[in-house]
Amino acid sequence: MTFNGQTYFEGNKITADKVYSYAEGGAIQVLGRGAVATFNNDVTFSGNKIKAATYAVGGAVTNYSTMNFNAGTVKFEYNEARNLVAEDTYSNEELLQNNIHFIQARGGALYNAEGNTTFGKDTNVTFKGNKAVSEKAKGYGGAVYNEVFANDTGRVNFLGKTTFIANEATTGGGAVFNKGVMTLGGETYFEGNKAPLGGAIYNDT
Q: What is the pTM of this model?
């Protein structure tokens, strides 16, 4: 899928509050080995929100394959991933039986696992006011959560100018939580991000 014009994802929502339910990618999910999403112009993800009884990942975007932002202004603003229940709500056996991997919120704006997400050198990227929050459990990566999944490597590349402002996580990585490979190749600014562990960045690799 290729987006050549200016693109806006605004106010999209997923609510998954039933027993064992989960939510991924409030605006867009890229899934499958051959799946590719490419943006060649300005794109805005604003006010997209997900909330779930078990895990909520990627308030705006979840990527398990390939995403390329090649040029233009890229904004992730006021997106949110929210978990609703405590980690001990279900037994380990219940979680396994229902294919639930964890009970957390991850990536208020972007969750990248097993995939490759690249913001090219001609992009100007801003993450502002995004949140990964949990009322009773844990939240990681207020703006971005990147991780190794299964036997693959999660990679996020920021090659242009990137700004993280006032993002928030309940537990760790107010702006960024990284358990994969991340490159910050251009000018990068962190301002006013908040979390108990790693106000701006929590790097776990």
A: 0.91
